[in-house]
Amino acid sequence: MHSCQTKKTVKKEVEKRPNILFCIVDDQSFIHTSINGTAEVNTPNFDRIAKSGVLFNNAYCNASSCAPSRASILTGRNIWEIEEGGLLFGGLPKQFSTFSSLLKKSGYETGYTGKGYMPASHKEPYQKQPLAEELNAVKLNAPKYINRKDYSGNFNVFMEKRVKDKPFFFWYGSHEAHRAYNSGDGIKAGKDISKIKVPGFLPDNDLIRSDIADYYNEIEWSDAHLGRMLQALEHAGELENTIVIVTADNGMPFPRAKGTCYDYGTHMPLAVCWGNKLKGGNNVNDFISFIDFAPTILEAAGITIPKGITGKSFLNVLLSNKSGLVDKSRDKVFTALERHAYCRQEGLTYPIRTIRKGDWLYIMNFEPDRWPAGDPDFYSPHQGFYGDIDKSPSRTYILDKEDKTAADYYFNITVGKRPDVELYNVKEDPYQLNNVAFKEINKSLCKELKNELFTYLSKTNDPRMMGKAPWDNYPYYFDGFSQKHLLPIGKRDNKNK
């Protein structure tokens, strides 16, 4: 009798659909976790997820800009496939369903706290609630420039009010480590800036190190809330049956990182755990794109993946309990950018498409005559001159060229015009400072990567492959911004030919 009851219990547990806790930090590059060996940043809860589950070494956002990155996650589509959804301060058209709405339709309790799909319009003709019900009522006293939303407190409210026998999906979107920072907080928190490794695309001095320390401080704030959420899951007896995904939307908010298609803009931290379904400690090298989250979550939830989703589920990789390269077909990802901030005359974008394959990053800049970080003589309503770079001490140092001899180099690699083609060996050149696209030895490699990139873009109906640029004419829903700067659709293309 006891044996039969045990078998029935096991069968019931197997059939139970998993909960999903999706945790996304705002502006964090892949390397900046303690498990990855970065000094002076402490992320014990991210590390816990990685050690009890899988650490992905090659996860890439689809676009290094928060709203388009989040739209690609929710829809499972590339940014060139979702119209205005591919832009910051755009909107997600109704015809592109989101995985969270599909979870809700299939019986999941859903909710989110912190930063959801934004900044974007949530009014007609766009989706009003593409993510889930917002839960941000619980506030706390927070240090200057730290968001007052009590993320873990709001998760507790969700856990208390949910229907206990239903599976749930919850999105925790930390506003940190988005700028602004309270300058010097990292040092005040005890960080030894002499131990901080400055990426090679930034000047190595105490000002930059202190700025990075402040950034690390905000990553730790996000991680602490994650820890309290894990405790809540344990208390509710739900941790074993919850898929916990921890990542970030785009790279660090520093010059030549966020808002670019270099690795410090698109290469993301990613750790996933799922109770005893994963043996823990796996270190996976498969390339994971953010468009792969939607089909993976839907498959795990037992929901048919709808047509139109471009991403590919990596549930097989997750459940393989193997390290290294698990799925040989996962040897590449594609990233892109159109408009981040409105920082060029008449809202013109800086269109980029890339293929990241093996050790190589191949970049195609479709409009190399434009300024990649924004026009030097156009004041963006969002960030000022060179508006694709977030305001910061690091930006001020580079753009104001206080140390003229040193900063001229960083000024040029940050805002200078770029060739139509860039090629980098990321293993040998982790900061992408040495473009080897025009070396004779790489001629055939460039041709091969371009063909592979363009084949994928054509297959997924990228308007750029048809000589079209609809993004130049899409509205920009920044508070107080006047749309009078935009030319009528059709006129802009003639003007810029």
Automatic annotation (TrEMBL):
Domain of life: Bacteria
Sorted UniProt keywords: Hydrolase
Coiled-coil annotated residue ranges, if any: none
Residue span, Sulfatase N-terminal domain: 18-303
PROSITE patterns according to UniProt: SULFATASE_1 (PS00523)
InterPro entries found in the cross-reference section: Alkaline_phosphatase_core_sf (IPR017850), GAG_Ulvan_Degrading_Sulfatases (IPR052701), Sulfatase_CS (IPR024607), Sulfatase_N (IPR000917)
Key word Signal present: no
PANTHER family: SULFATASE, SULFATASE ATSG-RELATED
Family: Belongs to the sulfatase family.
Listed name of the protein: Sulfatase
Natural source organism: Postechiella marina
